[in-house]
Amino acid sequence: MSDTGKPQVVLGVCGGIAAYKACELLRRLTESGHAVRVVPTEEALRFVGEPTWAALSGRPVATGVWDAVHEVPHVRIGQTADLVFVAPATANLLAKAAAGLADDLLTNTLLTARCPVVFAPAMHTEMWEHPATQANVATLRSRGAVVLDPAVGRLTGADTGRGRLPDPAELFEAARMVLRRGGRAPDLAGRRVVISAGGTREAIDPVRFIGNHSSGKQGYALARTAAARGAEVTLVAANVALPDPAGVRVVPVESALDLADAMEAERRGADAVVMSAAVADFRPAASAASKIKKDGSAPAPVELVENPDVLAGLVASRDREGLAQTVVGFAAETDDVLANGRAKLARKGCDLLVVNQVGGGRAFGTEDNQAVVLGPDGTAVEIPRGPKEDLADRVWDLVAERLPD
């Protein structure tokens, strides 16, 4: 903490075109009560000048090891930080950090920091995919740093691909998720997790569908918290109108069959699979090719067929292949919550079942949630009402306990 009692964040900025996005990240950090010290590289100042960083942070900008030498900035800045967040992090900076070089103020800060360190890379796709960069990323992650995978999108010029700096709002959420852990190590580093979120839609015709009220907010909270804990995260999102979390690969789907196929494909090689999506139990036996019109007569009944049980199918695949994989399910109940939850846990065969009561303004679309996490051994862990990130973190605590060493 700084002498003002605010969390002390060091924002490192490297020389890439995405440096301008760090201005918005800085604004969000300062406006939410963080004391931010900006440490730009010399190359970063070619994109955004020192006055901009000073005006947005309200603090002098540290630009070199020879500035304010009596304060020993190359040591003190890192020592006093609660978080060092580098955005954008160039391929050059990642290489220097992995090798332990200290040829400017930012790399000196990285070596002296004893707090969580987050890198948000941004570069051309070929640079990100180069074996040298991937080796440097692996090295940094092995040392406890959180390296967020870049987003897919428009890059410099006409190029498009993976390498884009995530949206500043999502970078801010990533910083907030890491800070709320209070300096604890990223305990999911080296783990791959797959999460489903949102609600499936089953087409009646090109206009209408059978669906549910799930917003996907709980699944996205699970994805953000897992990324902040160092995991490689894939999020299978069913009809979710939320921005992609920073560092998370998002696979969009629509129907229950789409979701089942995507989860079956993505679960291979995963250490944990969390099914938080609300999946329709039934779908129309046939979907009309064009919009069904009113003609004055009674509407034809919609024949329904049962959708596959995605959660039970994931458990069956795991067991059939003998994988050491933790599978977590979610159950939304309106009444007899625990009884229905325990019956569902027995049917599904998963390792944990998160049961929450829905309806009456609870769970769906809200910012908070509460639940009971049931285990096959009869355990029941109550998670009190609070932000959905709290529930997500508690779920990952329970998952981490079950992951093999």
From TrEMBL:
Q: Domain named Flavoprotein: which ranges?
A: 8-171
GO BP field: coenzyme A biosynthetic process; pantothenate catabolic process
Which parts of the sequence are annotated with region: Phosphopantothenate--cysteine ligase?
193-405
Q: In which pathway does it act?
A: Cofactor biosynthesis; coenzyme A biosynthesis; CoA from (R)-pantothenate: step 2/5; Cofactor biosynthesis; coenzyme A biosynthesis; CoA from (R)-pantothenate: step 3/5
Q: Name the reaction it catalyses.
A: N-[(R)-4-phosphopantothenoyl]-L-cysteine + H(+) = (R)-4'-phosphopantetheine + CO2; (R)-4'-phosphopantothenate + L-cysteine + CTP = N-[(R)-4-phosphopantothenoyl]-L-cysteine + CMP + diphosphate + H(+)
Instruction: Identify the stretch(es) annotated as Phosphopantothenoylcysteine decarboxylase.
Output: 1-192
Q: Which residues form a coiled coil?
A: none
EC number, UniProt record: 4.1.1.36, 6.3.2.5
- What does the Swiss-Prot or TrEMBL cofactor note state? Binds 1 FMN per subunit.
For this UniProt record, the keywords arranged alphabetically read as follows: Decarboxylase, Flavoprotein, FMN, Ligase, Lyase, Magnesium, Metal-binding, Multifunctional enzyme
The organism's place on the tree of life at top rank: Bacteria
Q: Which cofactor does it need?
A: Mg(2+); FMN
Biological role: Catalyzes two sequential steps in the biosynthesis of coenzyme A. In the first step cysteine is conjugated to 4'-phosphopantothenate to form 4-phosphopantothenoylcysteine. In the second step the latter compound is decarboxylated to form 4'-phosphopantotheine.
> Which NCBIfam families does the UniProt entry name for this protein?
coaBC_dfp
What protein is this chain from?
Coenzyme A biosynthesis bifunctional protein CoaBC
Q: Which organism is it from?
A: Nocardiopsis algeriensis
